[in-house]
Amino acid sequence: MAQRKEIVDYLFDYLNVGEFRDYCPNGLQVEGKNEINHIVAGVTASQELIESAIEQKADAVLVHHGYFWKGENETITGIKQKRIKALLQADINLLAYHLPLDAHAEVGNNAQLAKVLDIEITGTESVNGVNNMLWKGRFAESVRADVVKMRLENALGREPLHLSSSSDAPIQSIAWCTGGAQGYIQNAADLGLDAYLSGEVSEQTFHQSKELDIHYFAAGHHATERYGVQALAKHLARRFGVTSEFIDLDNPV
């Protein structure tokens, strides 16, 4: 058992929350009970995840995608009202960490994805003033693009979209940023790397991959961001002697 404030204060320091100017508040978003024994982790604080947490008698829900995003309607209506009402009625805390969980060197989405894909990390780059947003690495040996695509499918459980470089050259060096970071393909090309990997894809990405001569893999926003929150939940379980479980609600995006 741990106190809510103890966990929230610890995560503020552990994830370096104060260093980030984010699109949403990081930390405690909905306040529940003071004592936390069981944490349910998931990628997004959807209604389905909340209902699953209630069934599992969770004291806290830990997610990467929470609420109160910049630019959204600030009123507590519609699906937001239903989600928050369910959390409050069940007295469940909602903890959400966005950019801090992408960037963290140990439990972050990018660091954990490298482990899943067996990529040797060679460094990180800042993007738009945010440190550790673009990660760089290399495979043990140079391989064809179709081999990389197969590795991604086997590891993540979904077929990625591959946009070939104009030269269709083999791949050894690669950059990545999980989620909706397809716009960083220019940054990866500027570094002279063979390929870039993210979660989503835009219409212009097809033209960029050709004209920049860099392979691009869109492996799924959800699929690439499943691993950070799992690692963080396990870390908290060890640190505070609580129990945790990850609920993976399939999302094709």
Would you give an account of this structure?
There is one protein chain. The protein is of the alpha/beta class and 253 residues long. The chain contains ten helices and 13 strands. It has helices at 4-14, 47-55, 78-90, 99-103, 109-117, 145-156, 185-190, 203-211, 221-224, 227-240; strands at residues 2-3, 27-30, 35-36, 38-44, 60-65, 93-96, 120-127, 130-143, 161-163, 171-176, 195-198, 215-218, 243-246. The strands form three sheets. A six-stranded mixed sheet has the order 7-8-10-11-12-9. Helix 8 links the parallel strand 11 and strand 12. Helix 5 (109-117) packs across helix 10 (227-240).
CATH homologous superfamily grouping of the largest domain = NIF3 (NGG1p interacting factor 3)-like
Order of helices and strands: EHEEEHEHEHHEEHEEHEHEHHE
Arrangement of strands in the largest sheet? 7-8-10-11-12-9
Q: What is the CATH fold-level name of the largest domain?
A: Udp-n-acetylmuramoylalanyl-d-glutamate--2,6- Diaminopimelate Ligase, Chain: A, domain 1
Total domain count: 2
Bin the helical content. 25-40%
Spatial gap, N to C terminus: 36 Å
